[in-house]
Amino acid sequence: MTMPSPTRGLSKPTLATTPAGRPRCAAMAVGSVPYSDPQDAVDLVMRFTPEIPTWPQLPRRDFHENMYVQFTEGFPGLRLDEDRERVYVLDELPIDELTAFFEALESDDPTRFAISPGYAATIPLLERSLARTRPPFVKGQVTGPVSFGLGLTREDRRALLYDDTLRDVAVHLIVMKARWQLGVLAAWAPASTPLIMVDEPSLTQMGSAFVSIPEHLALPALERCLRALPCLAGIHVCGGTDWSMIASLPVDVLNFDAADHLDSFLAHGEAVGAFLRDGGLLAWGAVPNDARAYGQTAEETGARVVRGAEALAAAGLSESGRVDGLLDVSDILEASFVSPACGTGALTPELAERCFALTAQTSAWLRARL
């Protein structure tokens, strides 16, 4: 069987073609929160990140909200061992399941790839919250194909990333899960600009001696996924990675750990500067997602962002002192979100709320200086 192209019939907008304008250091949530009650989770997001609300993941509520399980509905040959909380794909894909998946792709109907409430309990609640507000942005999320392909295995424990067929299935499934989210977010918040974040924690292992991530397999899969998203698309990596490589992909937002890995990010200043001059956006994970958040102030986290913006602006200076592309600190901050460094799902609810509050306070501190 030949699968259809995930990009067929799609055109990708840029920020210039959307009504949202630039984010100006708006506060943004990342991934998971440590709640079991979906309403508590949505209330947290709407309280502290009202300009770009999202549906948070609740891994403590149910095994199905684990980031490697949450987007697996509809994967041919997938099996869930509920007692052991294990998910895997059969070594031999059942022909009927593969045929059904292929036919669903051919229909080009994202509703056939919906994420059910059992796998994402906060999505239905977000609809009610969006009906009461008109945020400039609205955010969805998927686990990226590299992390998804390494986090899920066949029966023989071999990661899906290394199987050509299963890797291809994963890319198509992730794209359709994202496109389904775009459909519901557009219906619920028609005046908002949608952003889909692609979570790729495994990219911190690129070049590692302990995890084999062949670039010739990983990068094409990630590029295909990004190109197929007809909206603003971002990549979140909660650690150090090759940001020059990532900035060269068809991506609109780079969400990076500015709390612990800012120097690693700034080491790619030339590539990031080119990304910004081409209209890209940054999401500074300036708030540590651990107990340090109790002791830090908005001035400290905001000043870290400013120092980073100054370094990026300086990276655009030629030896003669001429600014390449007129990129300055204000430009960079105008094109930025701020967020926690990573998801808060492993924290206590009290610490998670502190991270969200500090993110909102950092946003306000930075905006006061724009």
Blueprint (SSEs and pairs):
Blueprint: E1 26-27, H1 38-48, E2 78-81, E3 86-89, H2 95-107, H3 122-130, E4 137-143, H4 145-151, E5 153-154, H5 164-188, E6 193-199, H6 215-227, E7 232-237, H7 243-247, E8 253-257, H8 262-266, H9 269-277, E9 281-287, H10 292-295, H11 298-315, H12 329-334, E10 336-340, H13 349-367
Parallel strand pairs: 1-10, 3-5, 4-6, 6-7, 7-8, 8-9, 9-10
Antiparallel strand pairs: 2-3
Characterization of the model:
This protein is of the alpha/beta class and 370 residues long. The protein has 13 helices and 10 strands. It has a 7-stranded parallel sheet with strand order 1-10-9-8-7-6-4. Helix 6 links the parallel strand 6 and strand 7 (232-237). Helix 1 crosses helix 3, helix 9 (269-277) packs across helix 11 and helix 11 (298-315) packs across helix 13 (349-367). Residues 318-323 have low confidence and may be disordered.
Instruction: Quickly give the structural class.
Output: alpha/beta
Largest sheet: 7 strands, parallel
Ends distance: 54 Å
pLDDT average, as an integer?
92
Short description, anyone?
The chain has 370 residues and is of the alpha/beta class.
Please name the defining characteristics of this protein.
single chain, 370 residues, alpha/beta, TIM Barrel, 3-stranded mixed sheet
